[in-house]
Amino acid sequence: MKYILGIIQLLIIAACSSENAVSFSGETMGTWYNIKIITSDLDEDAKVRLHNEIDELLVHVNNQMSTYIENSEISKFNSSQANVPFKVSDSFLEVLTLANQITAESGGAFDVTVMPAVNLWGFGRDGRREKAPSESEVSRLKQYVGMDKIKIDENTISKSHPETELDFSAIAKGYGVDKVAGFIMQKGYANFMVEIGGEVVVKGVNAHDGMWRIGIDKPDIEPSVERGFQAILSLTDEAIATSGDYRNYFISGDSLYSHTIDPVTCKPILNGVASVTVIAPTCALADAMATAIMVMGESRGLEWVESKADVETMIIVRQNDRFRISASSGFNSYVVKE
Length: 338
What we know:
By secondary structure, the chain is an alpha+beta fold. It has helices at residues 44-65, 73-78, 90-105, 115-120, 135-141, 172-186, 283-296, 298-306, and strands spanning 10-12, 21-28, 31-38, 86-87, 150-153, 156-159, 192-196, 199-203, 212-217, 229-235, 238-244, 249-252, 255-258, 261-262, 267-268, 273-280, 312-319, 322-327. The protein contains 8 helices and 18 strands. It has an 8-stranded antiparallel beta sheet, with helices on one face.
């Protein structure tokens, strides 16, 4: 099972002693998940049971939302006929409804019908390509990309064009984090961290100073073991997601093509935005907004975030050979001053 890669890894800075923290990890959504729970009540058998239950939960989410699973809910819809009602699960409808909201708020910068363009540019299930597609190939896609091609009617959805397909890769990891976090809370744990491929929810306190610390990578096209942190954030009861342009791309001629596709143009973005970090109440929202702001660009993205009382962002923009940072008015309150 695989999702489109390219999300910047948010590196969890360990601050928990072994006496009161339980940690485990696993593979999901084409990446890794990591969980830390601050507790002294989980013995080894209970830890194994909880680990297995979380694995089962994530398998269920994947079977709903992964386009790399042939018989997943989303794959079945993508192969369905036009104008035929398709019954969807409550979780699927929840994600699609949020995606539709973000599409409207972002002016189409986020759109889960972008799947045909993702595949055309070589960032989807059809595999890599070595040269950019022609203008005619790109233009042809526009007739079936857009949320206006999707009709939502209670617990069924339908599409107006047979080649319209959904892609939840820019929201599903965040949703998965939220589901796992909710499950852990239902089990009675109040202090924990859940991370899937760099998308994070933190609740309560850790075992160090009461706050969780999350490091955000410096964006750089050149791979580097010593990449370092752009910033370290101190958080509790928040979700955070980061999207970037340098972990998944291809080069053709003198051009670098990022995996982040503008749904309006059906082409990779060329606005200079290198990465976007979003802090929000839920990880699904943070995940989707980070991708949307990558497409919207610095000015529109900041304006959008400032209109939301419970969301903050940091946008890193390439400027010649350097990076420039813009942040929303409340973002710096989360930054650890070293």
